[in-house]
Amino acid sequence: MAGTLFINKPQLEYLYDIYNHRKWVHPDPLEFLYNYSDSRDIEVVGLIASSLAYGRVAQILKSVSIVLEKMGSSPYDFLLSVEPSSLMRIYSGFKHRFTTGDELARMLIGARSVIKQYGSLYNCFFSGFSDGDDTILNGLSFLVNELVKKYDGQKNSLLALPGKGSACKRWNLYLRWMVRKDRVDMGGWAGISPCLLIIPLDTHMHRICLSLGLTERKNAGMGTALEITRAFKKIEPEDPVRYDFALTRLGIRDDADLEAFLHRYYTGSLS
């Protein structure tokens, strides 16, 4: 896609109507959440699936499957019933790109500790909010700090720290899944307004937003994610990440391309 493309709310809504359906989810780690009905399981599965959402999609799905297979029918019950030393042993041979089994186990141990202390990951996240917050960053920072506290903040490739300037794409993806509720996103974290969410920014979404003129920044960091989110807020103030799933289908799927979509939209050849 060369140059700046023009897209407005009616076009985004049309795109949303076409692609924001579960039939378009596969292959996406979000699909693992659909296998569970208990909100306690869903938030644990979401943490695992989103944290591993980097690299080739086939490898992501394989890695998430390996982790969940060892947890049985209730990842929440498994996490609370297994001792930290056993978690280290169970996942000792795990590997996902540059993520080690030790890192995975430390994240799960952190989640176990947070759930035991706060009752849920949601309760911990919500505890980090202050009146007047205009994004989820304070709640997210609090949750991440609690997850890594047991290991004195030791670096973990699965747990990006918001204060370090990272766009935290995987965290923002997780929060989109947990906060929003529509035909694709599961929701369940009541009390968190979607207007506080930040766009899950990776190189693919960054390229789309550059093409749409939503940012001119070349770095896909948190500053750029916030700028793009503000641009989407002008279009959809109460739900700035509403179009994230639909837009990221373009370029991921062989049959979906932003420029081609706009051409079909303008020529009336969409079906």
Describe this protein with a few key phrases:
271 residues, mainly alpha, two-stranded antiparallel ribbon
Mind explaining what this structure looks like?
With 271 residues, this protein is mostly helical. It has one domain. The protein has helices at residues 9-19, 39-51, 57-69, 75-81, 84-90, 101-118, 121-127, 137-149, 169-179, 203-211, 222-235, 244-249, 258-267; strands at 95-96, 99-100. Strands 1-2 form a two-stranded antiparallel sheet. Helix 6 packs across helix 8 (137-149). The longest helix has 18 residues, at 101-118.
What is the gist of this entry?
The chain is mostly helical and 271 residues long. 51% of the residues lie in helices and 1% in strands. The protein is built from 13 helices and 2 strands.
Order of helices and strands: HHHHHEEHHHHHHHH
Q: Outline the low-pLDDT stretches.
A: none
Ends apart, CA distance between termini:
22 Å
The structure class reads mainly alpha
List the helices and strands and how they pair.
Blueprint: H1 9-19, H2 39-51, H3 57-69, H4 75-81, H5 84-90, E1 95-96, E2 99-100, H6 101-118, H7 121-127, H8 137-149, H9 169-179, H10 203-211, H11 222-235, H12 244-249, H13 258-267
Antiparallel strand pairs: 1-2
Helix pairs in contact: 2-9, 5-6, 6-7, 6-8, 7-8
